[in-house]
Amino acid sequence: MPTLGWLAQPAVLPWVALALGLCIGSFLNVVIHRLPRMMEREWRAQCAELAGQTPPAAERYDLVAPRSACPACGHRLRAWENIPVLSWLALRGRCSACGARISLKYPLVELLAGSGAAYAAWRFGPSAAALGAALFVWFTIALAFIDQETGYLPDDLTLPLVWIGLLVNLGGAFVPLSDAVIGAAAGYLFLWSVNAAFRALRGMDGMGYGDFKLYAAVGAFLGWKVLPLVILLSSLVGLVFGSLQMFSARRGWDWKFRFHFGPYLALAGILAMFWGPAILQRFPMLRFA
Description:
Elements: H1 13-50, H2 86-90, H3 105-124, H4 128-150, H5 155-168, H6 177-202, H7 209-222, H8 227-250, H9 261-282
């Protein structure tokens, strides 16, 4: 009886991961678009209940239903219009029904998810680390885009990511479990302390609690020793995007980029996951111990 062991071959696994990642990226587009709206609908229903009102009846709206549709004309996407990247190229970035432009964000998310999974498979081989790295990339892609667009870092994504990091490290995929547990606690408490100090000085929050949980997830995956590196990388990423924003403003370009910490932290976490050991080896002063 034939086996599927050939899928784990070094020459095959990255391509399998690429195909899977592209499909996951298509689903991530649904998550990015719908999850914030699902949260807002739930908040409105809760507010109505607290006010003693009956929440208005609404059609089912979740990550499964209704089917994906053009936001401009409501055209329901057919199967061939939902193929990752290829459909966007075939449609030339426009709806087949009304010709409305389809955002470049959709194929970009799919490509990021696919290439991230392929690189994780190539880097770590058939292992728990490869699976953990792919999951980390997929979750942080969704979180970064949601935060950039809405300012939300949903608990539905950040909290499972913390637990996934701890579970992956049960066998020491990235760091010993003790380092992962300390990393999760230290990540959360560090940003919480920074925000508490900012609030004491300015009377307002400097960041959201979702940032604390995302940093805790980074610590759960990579351990406490790399947390200073992640903060440094996130600051550098923010500096780059800030410089690009100022440059585009001077040129009169409308970039529409919001300055939220989540995307910087997500990108820094990915950089630290794949290249953190090499960076720390070259700059050992960036690690705790």
